[in-house]
Amino acid sequence: xxxxxxxxxxxxxxxxxxxxxxxxxxxxxxxxxxxxxxxxxxxxxxxxxxxxxxxxxxxxxxxxxxxxxxxxxxxxxxxxxxxxxxxxxxxxxxxxx
Length: 97
Fold this sequence. Notes:
Blueprint: H1 3-18, H2 39-63, H3 67-78, H4 84-88
Helix pairs in contact: 1-2, 2-3
InterPro entries: CrpP-rel
Keywords: Plasmid
């Protein structure tokens, strides 16, 4: 997917919210658009689904005045990647400093 396609999907999600559609009316949730077993198709579908949803959620947050909270939460969530040592319980650094 190109950056232009990504932006178009975000705009489509935003327009859908403006028109009063619900988040669950994401066109990528339609059975005909669901991927069928191919992992590359799944990755493409997920990216398109998420782009539309992002546009919808951004417009929704701007309507109820919580746009800054929405982006703050989004950024905070993305900055907290799970470290492998937290997943397995083992320590990566053996340095006791």
